């Protein structure tokens, strides 16, 4: 047993040599870049599900101006009132305007799409920008450790980079998502707060900028409120005897924070009638819809996963063991306690208060990615500060185990995305065969893989025969000779986030089309989907 322990620790020491860590780090970054290139190659880049809506929102601002919030559409001539707009809950929201007119808007944060609309790059590179920002976030974690926890050994900083890069935050880094930008701003806010708490030398303007960053992060991801709120509550509790000193110390940071909140909140209130934007109204409605049993069900799924998705425990059990032992057996610094408790409490509150399940595909651990970042900071600082050699080696063992486990889960998730990309290309190929023919969907389940086809040709939805009859009349009157029909050929799975009524009306809603003006030209099955081409009757 003693020999095994010696060999094990020798292996750990070999793994944590500087040049070995550099090789692993370079290989991991190259692997991520390679996968991004593969997914963005072919007929169209792999942009699916929620990321699609953010792309269309960005293109709307790019083509029509930053104040044009209406849903992007290439079928205004066919569907001026958005009756057959394919995207419904949870992607779009109808705002009541004057004269009983309704305006279709996307529910996602406008600031993210508005910023990307200003970038002078083709949308095909948006995914790559998010991945680059993930690398920037990793660099921010390194700076956090170096300047706030005095971790100066480069091999430990390389180890921290590996630990974070294989965390489940990668699921947001490989999508066109506002999560990674939000985490960068939130980390900047945490940096400012911990710098003030540790009385690190900072410039007044930096505290102000840190406060602004915290405000911005809230308007990108609403769960940032929980991270900032818990951090503020803990600092208030730890400084109860020095309240006036606390207020003076944080005056510039709070000024920056409230400046951002008032400015961005005022803009949202003026444009959408909601301080946190349309997303907050949708989320609040969904929050009220859930029963207590639903919340515990989501919490259980987050912890242990399900048939299709991994759970937090299986992904992070080395970290769970290490963090649990450290709070019981180790003497922790004030900063370690603060980071650790914020990470733990925020994770629990985000999962319990979120009205949604934790995402799709294999890595379903959404909304709590910033907790993993805080856990990474915590355990690396623990390893760096530990003086007992034997205990230090055991800490390192659990960290390396977490890296190996994390990479295993990342690989499995990437394998799932490779599968999605394969079918994505097949379906896109079918649509480009008739580039001028609108696509009619019979179910919202079919919308998950539209990708940038929506930017190239009209896509509409008719969820029942009576709606199809009205739609085909419009197509006929406009002289449209052909249209395509695309529908999942099996019973769609039910998402935990939607009601039974919505599922029956919009998801499990396929039917056999009865057409008055068109006849079927072809009817085939492609990758589990039924694909039809209809042409005008002579």
Automatic annotation (TrEMBL):
Superkingdom of the source species: Bacteria
Keyword Transcription regulation: no
Residues annotated as transmembrane: 20-39, 125-149, 156-174, 180-196, 203-220, 226-244, 251-270, 312-331, 338-357, 394-410
Keyword Ribosomal protein belongs to the record: no
Keywords, in A-Z order: Membrane, Transmembrane, Transmembrane helix
Signal sequence bounds: none
Name the UniProt record assigns to this protein: Glycosyltransferase RgtA/B/C/D-like domain-containing protein
Origin species: Leptospira montravelensis
């Amino acid at each position: 047993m003693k020999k095994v322990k010696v060999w094990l620790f020798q292996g750990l020491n070999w793994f944590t040599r500087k040049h070995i860590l550099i090789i692993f780090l370079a290989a991991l970054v190259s692997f991520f870049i390679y996968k991004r290139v593969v997914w963005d190659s072919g007929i169209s880049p792999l942009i699916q599900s929620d990321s699609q809506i953010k792309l269309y929102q960005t293109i709307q601002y790019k083509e029509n101006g930053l104040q044009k919030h209406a849903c992007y559409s290439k079928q205004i001539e066919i569907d001026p009132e958005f009756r057959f707009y394919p995207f419904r809950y949870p992607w779009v929201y109808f705002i009541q305007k004057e004269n009983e007119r309704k305006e279709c808007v996307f529910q996602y944060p406008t600031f993210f799409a508005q910023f990307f609309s200003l970038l002078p790059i083709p949308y095909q590179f948006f995914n790559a920008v998010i991945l680059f920002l993930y690398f920037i976030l990793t660099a921010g974690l390194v700076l956090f450790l170096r300047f706030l926890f005095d971790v100066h050994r480069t091999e430990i900083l390389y180890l921290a980079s590996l630990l974070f890069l294989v965390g489940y935050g990668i699921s947001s880094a490989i999508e066109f998502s506002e999560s990674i930008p939000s985490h960068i701003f939130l980390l900047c806010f945490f940096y400012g707060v911990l710098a003030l708490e540790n009385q690190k030398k900072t410039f007044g303007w930096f505290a102000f900028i840190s406060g602004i960053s915290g405000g911005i992060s809230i308007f990108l991801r609403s769960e940032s409120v929980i991270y900032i709120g818990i951090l503020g509550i803990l600092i208030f509790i730890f400084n109860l005897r020095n309240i006036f000193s606390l207020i003076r110390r944080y005056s510039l940071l709070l000024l920056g924070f409230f400046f951002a909140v008032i400015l961005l909140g005022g803009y949202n209130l003026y444009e959408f009638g909601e301080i946190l934007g349309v997303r907050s109204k949708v989320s609040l409605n969904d929050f009220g819809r859930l029963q207590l049993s639903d919340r515990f069900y989501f919490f259980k799924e987050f912890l242990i996963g399900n048939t299709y998705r991994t759970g937090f425990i299986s992904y992070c059990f080395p970290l769970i063991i290490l963090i649990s032992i450290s709070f019981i057996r180790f003497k922790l610094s004030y900063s370690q306690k603060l980071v650790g408790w914020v990470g733990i409490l925020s994770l629990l509150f985000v999962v319990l208060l979120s009205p949604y399940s934790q995402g799709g595909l294999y890595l379903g651990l959404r909304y709590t990615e910033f907790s993993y970042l805080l856990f990474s900071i915590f355990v690396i600082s623990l390893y760096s500060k530990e003086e007992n050699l034997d205990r230090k080696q055991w800490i390192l063992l659990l960290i390396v185990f977490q890296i190996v486990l994390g990479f295993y889960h990342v690989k499995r998730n990437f394998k799932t995305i490779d599968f999605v990309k394969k079918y994505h290309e097949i379906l896109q190929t079918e649509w480009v065969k008739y580039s001028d023919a609108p696509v009619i969907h019979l179910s919202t389940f079919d919308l998950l893989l539209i990708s940038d086809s929506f930017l190239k040709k009209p896509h509409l939805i008719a969820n029942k025969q009576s709606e199809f009859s009205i739609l085909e009349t419009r197509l006929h009157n406009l002289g449209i000779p052909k249209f395509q029909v695309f529908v999942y050929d099996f019973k769609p799975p039910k998402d935990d986030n939607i009601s039974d009524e919505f599922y029956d009306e919009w998801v499990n809603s396929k039917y056999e089309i009865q057409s008055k003006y068109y006849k079927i030209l072809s009817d085939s099955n492609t990758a589990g989907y039924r694909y039809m081409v209809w042409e005008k009757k002579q």
